[in-house]
Each structure stands twice: as C-alpha cells, then as structure tokens.
Design a protein that fits this description.
heterodimer, A: 551 residues, SH3 type barrels, MetI-like fold, 3 domains, five-stranded antiparallel β-sheet, 13 strands, flat, B: 756 residues, alpha+beta, 17 helices
C-alpha cells in the first residue's frame, strides 16, 4: 500500500507543501524574533536578590535582572572548572545582569541554578540608569548635599526624585550651551579661520581685511568666554548632590546625581507604572542621542541620518529614473538596441551593492569630491570638504543603485497603459508631448510612486555601499542644523543599518548592547515592510484600474 | 528640426499657436532624449569607471633616459656605490678614495664633496652599504679598521622653495673602528645595524672572518641617546675560502657567506661570541660563478646574480625543527655576459640589474617577472642604483657616463600568476594561495592572491544555494500548482516581502543569534534534516488514514497550513532533544567528536550559518521567479495531461516542470548572482578569514566582504586600491553575466509560452 502511495506522488506533494510551510515559518519566525526581542528591551524587568553559594566558598548576595536561561552539559561545566554532584546530564544556568560595571568589573554573570537560594524581589531595590558605566542596582542609603547627609532611610527616595529633577534640568542647560551656543561659536570661529585662509590664497590678505577678521574673532572669543563661565557655574552646581547606595557585596558607594539619567524601583512598580515606564523608554529610544559608545540611550541621529539620506536620494532618483523610463518606452525606437538597454538596466538592479559603493568612493568621493575641493574649497585644504565620504555622496551612490528600480517600475506602468488611450489622444490632435504630459504621465503616476517607494525601501536597508561612502558610527553633528548654510551635505551621518552592524559587532560590550540592536532592527524592519506593503498596494490597485479600462 | 520649426514659426505667425505646440513637442522630445540617454550613460559609466581604475595595473612599465652626463668629480676616484634621496634631486657617489660626492641627479652638477676621515696612510680596501633606506655605508681599510658613514639629507623651505642639503654623518663617531686587531687589510665586509645593536663582519686578506658587535648600553640613569656606551666583542668565525660577498640578516642572527665558486655558507651568529656553522649549499650550477649577492627588501630573500646572467632567489624555509636555504625561483635574462650590478628597491620586492651590454632591467620577485628592460648605453653598466620611490635609476657605464633614467613602474607586483596561482611567499613553507594585503612595514611582502576570496565567495554561494534551492523551488511548485488560490494570495506576498528585508538584519541575526544557537544545538540541527521530511511523510500517511469527515475539514490545497504546526513541533523536538542526543551519541561534545574523528575544526561563525542566512536572503528571489514560471505554464497543457489520466504529480513532474525548467534555471541563476555579491551577511556571519577550506564548519572571506573591510583603509591609486577595484569589477562582471543569461532565458520562455 505504501508503495502505491509513493507511486501516486502524494508524498512529494506533501513534501512540497512542507517547503512552503518551512519558508513561512522562517519568515514569520524571523519577524517574531525581532519583534519580541526588540520590544522586550524597554520593559523594566524585576530585579532579584538571591544567595549564591558555590561549594567550598562562602555565600554571596547577588542582585540583578534575569536576562537569559540555558541548559549546559556537565562536561562543559566540568571543563570550566565546576564539579556538580547530580544525576542529571544537564543543568540550568542563568545569565544575570548585575550592572555596577564600575564596582565589579562586568555587567553580566552566569549563575548555576543549583547554587542559587533565597530568591526574593525586595521592594526597595533601586535601579539607576547612568550616563556611564551602565546600570546600577542596589539599596539607597542616604542623600547628600555638598557631602552632608540631608536625607536618610525611607525619606531619601522622594528626596532623590526631587533632586534628580533639578539635576536633569541643569544637565539640559549644560547640553544646550555645549551643543548649541558653544557649537555655534566654534563653527563661526572655524569659518573665520577659513575666511582668513581664503583671503591669503586670493592675495587679499591686506592688513585691513585681516584686522576685521581679528576683531570678529575677538568678539566670538568673548562670547565663548562668557559661555564658558556659565558652563563652569552649571558644572559646579550640578555636582552638588550625591547619593550613597549599598551594592550587593555590602559595600556602600557614592554616586553623583549628575551621572544619573533615570531612577526607578523596578519591584515596586505596578503593571500600569511599568507600562508608563515602557513608553518613556521607547520614546527615549527614538528621540534621544546614544550614550556609552552607542550601547545605551537612543538612536535619534541614526533615524535622522537615514531619513535625510533617503530624502536627498529620492529627490535625485525619481526625476531621472522617470525621464529614462519615459524615454525608453515612449521616445526610443523599439529595436534590438533598446531591448539590450532594457535588459542591461534590469540587470543592474542585480549587481551587488558593494560594487556601487566602490564606484561611489572612487568616482564621487575621490574624483568629483577631490576636484570640487580644489575648485571651491581651497582654503580648507589639505583637510577635505567634499573629498571625503559624506551624506551627499551616499545619496548619490544610492541613487545610482536604485535608479534601475524606478526605471523598471515606471516602464511597467507605462506599458500597462492601453494603446487606445494614447491613440485617442493623438487622434484628437494632441501632440506627442501633450499626450504624454496630460494623459500618460498622470496615469502612470502610481507606477512612479511604486518605483520611488521601492527605491526608498531598498535604500533604507542598504548598508554595504554606505560603509565606503559616508556613514560613521558616531557623527558629532547632524547634517541639518542652525548654522548657515543649514544643510551640510559634506557631513558624515549615522544610519540605522550601519548602527545595527556597528553596535552588534564592533561594540566593546556586545552583551549589553544586544537588546538595543534588536530594537533598532525592529524599527528598520517595520519601516521597510510598511514601505513595501504600500508599494504592493498601489501596484495592485493600478493593475485593477487598467484591467477595468481595457475591458 | 528645432530650427526648422523656429523658421516656420517666424515666417508664418498666423498659426502661431499651432506652431508653438509643435516647438514644445520637439523640445520635449529633445529633453527626454538627452535626459534618458544621459541617465543610461551614467549607469553604464560604473563599468567603465571600474575598468579605468583597474586598467593601469596591466599597463606595461616604461623607462626613459632623462639625462646623461659624465661622472661628476671624476678625479676623486672610481665609483663604489650610488644612492639618491627621496625627492630624486640629490644623488651621492661614494668613491674608492673615500670621497662622498653629492651631485644633482638631473644635471650631474657637483653640490658637495666630503672626504671621509681616514687615518693617515690608510687606503680603502673594501666597501659595502647597510640597509639602503638608512643610507649607511662602511669602508674597510688596509690597516684592519673600518669607517662607518651615513648619507643624510635635510630638507628646508627657504622662500617657499624646497632646498635639500646633503651631509655625511658618523653614527659611531668619526674615529675608525678596529675590526681586526692584527691590522690585516680588509677584503670583504658586511654591516647590519638597528636601534640596539650593530654587527660588522670582515674578511681579512688571509681569509679570516672577524665579527665585531657593538651594542648600545641602555643607561638607566639618563634617557639621552648619546650616553649609550658601545661594547665591542670580536670573534673568529669558521674559515670559508674565496669569499665573494658577505651578508648579515636583518635580525643579526645569521651570516651568509657567498663563495665565488657558487656556494653559500650559513653561520648562526645569534651568540656573537660563539658562531655556529649551519649549512653550506651550492646555489648555482657547476661552473657558474656568483657575481653579486644582496638581500631583497625585508632581509629574508637572498638574490644571487651569476656570471651566466641569471638571478636566483633563495631564502631559508622551515623544515621541521630547522630552516634550510631553499631555491625559490630564477630570473633568466638574456645577458650571456653576466649581471654586473644588482640593487633592490627600498619599499617593494623589486630589484634592478645591469649587464655587460648596457641593459638595465627591473624585475619583481613576487610576480616572478622582468617588468621592463632597456638598453641605456653601448658600454657595460658597472653600477646601478634605484631611488627610494623606485621611479628613477642611476646607471654608470664603463665610459664613465651616468645615465639618469625615469621609470614608470607603479604596479610591478601584479601578474596573472600572482592573482590566480600559487606563489611561494617569503617565510612560507611552500607555494600557496594567500590574501594578506597590508602591513605597517615596507619589508612586508604583500600577498594578493584572489583565489581564496573567489573560493570563499563561491563557497558561501554554494552553501546558500544548497539551503535555498530545494526549499524555494519545492515551495514554488506547491504554491503555483497545488495551493488553494485563496491561500496563495497570502503566501506569495509574505514570502516575497522577505526580499526587501535588509541583509544587515539577516547578518546580525545570523551572527548573534543563529550562530550560538547552532553551536549549542549542533546535533539537533542535523537531526532536523532527517526528522523533518520523515515526520512530514509520517504525518501525511496518518492523515490519509483519518476518516474522510475529518479530512474534509481541511480543503485540498491547504496542506501547507496544516503542516506549519507539525513542522514547528518537529523542529522544536529536534532542538530540545539535541542535548540528550549529543550526550548519548557524542559523549556530550559533537564538536570535539568531529575534531577527533575527522579533524574538522569548528568555527562558531561558519559556512552553515552563512548558508542558512544567505539562503533566507535568496529564497524569496528564487521562489518568486520559479513560481511565476510555473504559474504561467499554459493551462491547456496541464488539462491535457490530466485528461489523459495522469495524476497531478505526474502532470507536475513530466509536463509542467519540463516546460518551466528554463524559468527555474533563470531563477537559480539570479539567486546565485545575489548570493555571490551579498556583503553584509558574510561580513557579519563569518570570521572573515581568507582560508581555502571546503568544510561546512569553517568560515571564509568573500570578495565583497573583503572590499567592505579593506577599501576604507586602502591608499588611493595604490596597487591594493586597484586590486580591490578589480575585485569589484570581477563581481560586477560575474553577476551581470549571470543575470543576463537568466534574463535571456526568461525572455525566450515568455515567447515560447505566448506561441503555445
């Protein structure tokens, strides 16, 4: 019977069905994995306290978040130097995020399930998010002002919350001055330096001109000094308060409030409180700047850089792609040459993106950029202005990379427009240009939109070429700011995709940064899938429309 | 045509509106033509730009004589050695009367003459130079003393013009050093000096070898350089007869003594007081004499110029515990009169030779080729020197004329063999394919074999296809032919949307999530290969046995939905039983077991991880095109087959698949093209070591990942830069070819369908 069953071919059909199911599981599993890990990152996990007793040494107290559990074979443990008396082949071990990197040296610690005892979740454990050294977990002891204790015991928590607000306020002012005002002054001083060099190169460095520059410079210098005094004062008052807290090994350490970003008592939070907290952190993630070598904080500059680059790219790619498509479909003589070009353009979409990166680096950055520098920015040389990777070159490179996408999509749209419409327009006496402008192009607009959206989706996810033509792990300033000429096309920028690569693989503390990478990946995936769905939707609607027209 | 319309416009204004429309029409078509063609040209530009950057690598080198002038300061003796400084402005001629004559390299105009401080009545009896880049040289005298000098150049910019002032330094003081206490004349000598120590070996007139070792004493109390004291130790070395040349290796551990008769003796001088004989080897054929011996830059390879006009390269190769001087390659020149002089480039593995017929030739050792040769004089070229940047050559002919020759030789290290063949690199035990591009030091021999990279690329693509092709094609078959139409409208887009998933995300998941999972569940992963198909078949068989009432709950064509939970459970089972199975079958350590039984090492980020991740990236591509090809097989073919009594599967495998096979082929080609060029996944999911190993448990480095890693650091227009462009060009050509073939096949297929 089994033989007959095989002969009928049914098993093969089932196996083919299994292939579809497997592919679906992979697709959905991937998305689910990214979503769960990415979204889980912002949830404030409970912090546990436990006794950890390795036989032969005294018990130690452990405080931390449980982040992972896995089972290991006894052999592996044995080779790691543990001897465990159990009849099981494998035992569980937990990865605990103990924080306090400054005190104990590392953020994470593996603990064997078998040695853990007295697990509890005390209400008064505090978690501090800090600007450096990662999280802190422990018990709050006292609050100090200028080294004198002002609050102790239960009162200290509310005192801490109040004082932290003040400190965060001052910190915000400091940041405003450093990033904003001082940044502007520095920019202006650098401008003056370039101006002076320009005068020298042009032979116009007359004493009057130079003197004017010096006067301006002194003015800025004065401004700078005033700001510096303000800044020093702020730094003095921000360091007024500090707290003392007990860590898990019983030591009491001193932490300045200036170092704190956020404080919470994870085990004391209600579910609603946790939800609120969750959204606060989510908001921080999309709106704030990264901290601690990109492993903490937000990814705002990366989002901004990606959007900016994609916008510039689409401004370039759409008109040119559409013109090329209209030319190929409407004006070029349809023959072997056009067909060859069409195939070639089609195939360019399949050329590896890194090849475009190499081209961009060689042609745009070194050749075009180098020549632009010599012609227009000689005063800055030997420091390159456009002769170095930057956002303009990245956008141009990606424009070339995605132009085949736009061409193919637009051409498809044009070819779907029924002949009758074209002929009707011409028969009514319209010229070819009028036919094109008044009927064909409006009808093909959705196709162009599709092409543009697909191009944007492709560009947003592309990383390899950008690594060569302008992306950096940490850009000191955004490509758009308040200093004339406002849009700085020569600047380097941060990018979501590169952020994933960099934080996930180049970061010194991969374990701590991993959740953040998942969150970044989730954001990128969501954006790209939405873009693609939009393109598919528009395309399908377009097809329906033409079907209706032809019948 | 535009002018015509304008003419008509002006001559006949009555119908101006009509005319104006005509002009607009023309204008538009011109704009469109210009715009469209320029966009297409811009795209095509990529290919030509890559070619333009790569091309200079394959241009032949050139030599042109720039100037020729009589030997400057001829009265100051015969030339012993030439050298040029960095800017090729000033050259120096060291003579046998112990003069250093500095002159302008372009005109021969003498700038300065410096007489070295020889003791009274002492005469020069021998000469040699130290490392060329250091400018060190040493004169051996007939009273057993030596004088060490160094030619140095100060660059200053008075009035914004470069001025180079040459001078002679005496690093060990102007007082001669006693190299032979018995005051015998020195016939041959060798000098090697670095920051801490200096070794001088001399051969006295009666054939004795004497070693002098100067060591800088680290003064604990003061940091000043000058305060270092000098220690001298001399030692008698084993006697070797008829010595032609002496060389001390850069680490000052070995001394090479060349005899005129064609033998080289290696002496271990790491213990300066107790030299030890290592080996004596015949390096040229019987009857041929050694004319010259010198080190290639880096001090590892010996270049031996012979009386028969050849140059042979030897270096010590590790054989077990010891090293053995081994013949690596020979450069055969046509010069039967023998090589007169040989000098090495300072920053590359090239060297220049001169011959009795007045020919100067430049060779490159790694490329194993004579790059360029030119007859610059009718007389014998007795001395030849090459500038630090290897762009000028000075040659002195027997008629006492100096030829100043410009050399255009930017990329000597590239040849077909270097890129694609095994090459015997310095310090390697045998010829090998190696990619190792950069190092801080000029002594490093760059290894530009594209083989390991091409191999890695194909390996990654192969494993990706191994994973993707069965899944994608089988899935496409089911989706296009057996699946219920309603389910198809959901399934197809959701698999296709995967194509848009950024590969950086796949790479990140592969490197940080999949690689550890596979490592810890290795047995489970392999068990899955067996368990999943088997489980599906058993489930299918069981399903058939179920009463029809239950079976009819799931309509035909929805099997795939039914199988999702089944596969999920099977997969989960395989993974969770991985650990117990590993304990039972492989005593808890499959990686160790593999290593013990098959000698397979295990990298966490290996080909399996890359194969799966890249497989996931190409599944949508292959799936989508295959599905289209199968779905568009004309329905009357399948209906005919079914009507004749074939089962659906028979129809599928005998009719539909056959008809759609060109489409499937093109899908695989396009998938392959994508896998070959993928960068981020391989960059993140492998260790990026350029090894040539087919093992699924080892990583690789691909062409694309290599570009991403090395391009930002490579110097513009250097050989390395151009080779990376070549790699990009290879990728471009490769994928373009794949895609074009696929496209043409698909085009044909579409035509065939429309005719059916």
């Amino acid at each position: 019977m089994i033989r007959d069953w095989f002969k009928s071919g049914t098993p093969w059909i089932w196996l083919n069905a299994a292939a579809v199911s497997a592919s679906l599981i992979i697709v959905l599993g991937l998305l689910a994995l990214i979503a769960v890990r990415g979204l889980g990152h912002f949830w404030p996990a409970d912090v546990m306290q436990a006794q950890y007793t390795v036989p032969g040494s005294s018990a130690v107290t452990v405080i931390g978040e449980l982040t992972d559990t896995e089972s290991v074979s006894l052999e592996d443990l044995h080779s790691a130097g543990y001897t465990l008396k159990t009849d099981k082949l494998r035992v569980d071990r937990h990865l605990i995020k103990t924080g306090n990197r400054d005190v104990i040296g590392s953020d994470f610690r593996w603990l064997l399930e078998a040695y853990l005892s007295d697990v509890s979740y005390p209400q008064n454990i505090i978690a501090l998010e800090r600007r450096e050294w990662g999280n802190f977990y422990g018990y709050l002891k006292t609050i100090k002002e200028d080294g004198k204790v002002v609050a102790e015991g239960d009162a200290s928590w509310s005192e801490l919350e109040q004082r932290l607000e003040r400190v965060l306020d001052i910190f915000e002012q400091i940041r405003e001055i450093e990033k904003g005002a001082i940044g502007d002054v520095n920019y202006a001083i650098e401008d003056l330096r370039l101006e002076r060099r320009r005068l020298e190169l042009g032979g116009e460095d007359t004493p009057e001109n130079l003197k004017a520059l010096v006067v301006k410079r002194q003015q800025f210098q004065k401004e700078y000094e005033v700001l510096q005094i303000q800044l020093n004062e702020l730094y003095r008052i921000i360091n007024r308060d500090s707290l003392t807290a007990e860590v898990m090994d019983g030591r009491v350490i001193d932490i300045s409030l200036a170092k704190l970003v956020r404080i919470y008592r994870p085990n004391d939070l209600s579910v609603l409180g946790k939800v609120g907290f969750y959204f606060v952190r989510l908001w921080e993630f999309v709106s704030d700047e990264p901290r601690e070598a990109n492993t903490e904080g937000g990814i705002f500059p990366a989002i901004f850089g990606t959007v900016m680059m994609v916008l510039i790219m689409s401004m370039m790619v759409t008109p040119f792609g559409v013109i090329a498509a209209v030319y190929l479909r409407e004006y070029a003589k349809q023959g072997p040459v056009t067909r060859t070009i069409r195939i070639a353009v089609n195939n360019l979409a399949g050329v590896p993106s890194i090849v475009y990166g190499v081209f961009g680096l060689g042609f745009f950055v070194y050749f075009l950029g180098g020549n632009i520098d010599h012609l227009f920015y000689p005063e800055a040389l030997p420091a390159p202005t456009f002769g170095t990777p930057g956002i303009l070159w990245s956008s141009l490179t990606l424009a070339i990379l995605t132009v085949p996408v736009v061409i193919v999509a637009t051409e498809e749209g044009l070819s779907r427009i029924p002949r009758a419409i074209r002929e009707g327009s011409l028969a009514l006496g319209a010229t070819k240009a009028e036919t094109l402008w008044r009927t064909i192009i409006p009808m093909a607009t959705p196709a162009m939109m599709t092409g543009m959206i697909l191009a944007i989706a492709r560009a947003a996810g592309e990383v390899a070429p950008l690594m060569l033509v302008g992306v950096v792990k940490l850009a000191p300033s955004l490509p758009l700011d308040g200093n004339a000429p406002f849009l700085h096309l020569d600047r380097k920028f941060m990018h979501l995709g590169f952020h994933i690569y960099d934080v996930g693989f180049q970061s010194p503390n991969v374990e701590a940064a991993r959740p953040l990478v998942y969150a970044t990946a989730l954001l990128l995936v969501v954006v790209i899938i939405i873009l693609n769905l939009a393109a598919i939707y528009i395309r399908n609607r377009l097809r329906e429309q033409y079907k209706g027209m032809e019948s | 045509m535009l002018i015509q319309s304008l003419n008509r416009f002006f001559t006949n204004t009555g119908t101006s509106r009509f005319q104006w429309r005509g002009i607009k029409d023309r204008l538009m078509s011109i704009c469109m033509g210009v715009g469209g063609i320029s966009v297409i040209i811009a795209i095509v530009l990529i290919f030509f730009y890559l070619l333009y950057v790569v091309f200079p690598m394959f241009l032949p080198a050139k030599m042109d004589t720039v100037a020729s002038y009589p030997r400057p300061a001829a009265q100051l003796g015969q030339t012993l050695h030439f050298a040029m400084e960095e800017q090729n402005e000033v050259a120096v001629r060291l003579t046998d009367q112990a003069y250093a004559v500095f002159f302008k390299a372009r005109s021969g105009e003498v700038i300065d003459e410096v007489r070295l401080p020889l003791p009274a009545k002492a005469k020069v009896s021998s000469f040699t130079h130290g490392r060329l880049s250091s400018g060190l040289f040493i004169y051996g005298l007939d009273n057993g003393q030596v004088v060490v000098g160094q030619h140095q150049y100060d660059v200053s910019y008075p009035n914004d013009k470069r001025k180079i002032t040459p001078r002679i330094e005496y690093p060990f003081g102007a007082k001669p050093i006693v190299a032979d206490a018995q005051k015998r004349a020195i016939q041959q000598l060798a000098l090697r000096s670095d920051e801490d120590q200096t070794t001088i070996v001399v051969v006295t007139e009666d054939g004795q070898l004497q070693l002098t070792h100067l060591q800088k004493e680290e003064s604990m109390l003061s940091d000043e350089e000058d305060s270092a004291s000098v220690q001298i130790s001399s030692a008698m070395l084993p006697v070797v007869e008829n010595i032609k040349s002496l060389l001390i290796e850069y680490g000052q551990r070995y001394l090479y003594v060349a005899e005129q008769s064609g033998y080289i003796t290696v002496i271990d001088i790491s213990e300066k007081t107790e030299p030890r004989f290592v080996e004596r080897k015949q390096v040229v054929a019987e009857g041929i004499q050694i004319n010259h011996m010198t080190f290639l830059t880096g001090g590892i390879s010996l270049l031996i110029a012979t009386s028969s006009g050849d140059v042979v390269q030897w270096f010590p190769v590790r054989r077990g515990e010891n090293t053995e001087l081994t013949h690596i390659r020979s450069f055969i020149t046509e010069e039967k009169s023998g090589i007169r002089d040989i000098e090495t480039e300072q920053r590359r593995k090239g060297f220049v030779t001169s011959s009795g017929q007045g020919v100067v030739a430049i060779h490159h050792s790694t490329a194993h080729s004579t790059i360029v040769s030119k007859k610059v004089s009718d007389y014998t070229i007795q001395h030849v020197a090459i500038s630090p940047r290897a762009d000028y050559v000075l040659a002195e002919s027997a008629d006492h004329h100096i030829q100043f020759v410009h050399v255009d030789n930017e990329h000597p290290e590239i040849s077909w063999a270097v890129l694609w063949d095994k090459v015997w690199y310095e310090s390697y035990e045998q010829p090998d394919y190696t990619w190792q591009s950069s190092s801080a030091s000029n002594d490093f021999e760059p290894k530009y074999s594209l083989m390991p990279l091409a191999f890695g690329t194909l390996k990654a693509a192969f494993y990706a296809m191994l994973f993707a092709v069965p899944l994608a094609i089988m899935g496409a078959i089911y989706t296009a032919y057996f699946m219920a139409p309603k389910m198809r409208t959901y399934v197809k887009p959701s698999i296709e949307i995967m194509e848009a998933l950024p590969t950086v995300i796949l790479g990140f998941l592969a490197g940080l999530w999949l690689a550890p999972v596979i490592e810890s569940h290795l047995v489970g992963v392999f068990a899955m290969l067996l368990l999943l198909p088997l489980g599906v078949l058993i489930f299918a068989l069981a399903w058939q046995q179920l009463p029809a009432s239950i079976r009819s709950l799931v309509p035909d064509g929805w099997q795939a939905a039914l199988l999702i939970p089944v596969l999920f459970i099977l997969g989960w089972m395989a993974l969770s039983f991985s650990a117990p199975m590993e304990s039972v079958l492989f005593s808890g350590d499959m990686k160790g077991w593999l290593d013990r039984h098959f000698g397979l090492g295990y990298d966490q980020r290996n080909s399996m991880v890359v194969g799966i991740a890249m497989g996931v990236a190409v599944i949508p591509t292959i799936f989508s095109i295959t599905e289209d090809a199968i779905f568009s097989v004309p329905k009357h073919l399948t209906f005919g087959s079914l009507a004749l009594g074939a089962t659906p599967w028979q129809t599928m495998s005998r009719v539909v698949l056959l008809t759609a096979s060109p489409g499937i082929f093109s899908a695989v080609m396009i998938g392959m093209g994508r896998a070959v060029g993928e960068t981020m996944i391989v960059l993140m999911a492998t260790g990026n070591t350029p090894v040539m190993d087919l093992s699924i448990f080892q990583g690789m480095r691909t062409l694309s990942a290599n570009i991403a890693v090395e391009m930002p650091e490579s110097e513009v227009d250097s050989t390395h830069y151009r080779i990376l462009f070549l790699a990009a060009l290879v990728l471009f050509a490769f994928t373009f070819m794949f895609n074009t073939v696929a496209e043409i096949v698909r085009h044909r297929l579409r035509k065939k369908y429309s005719s059916l």
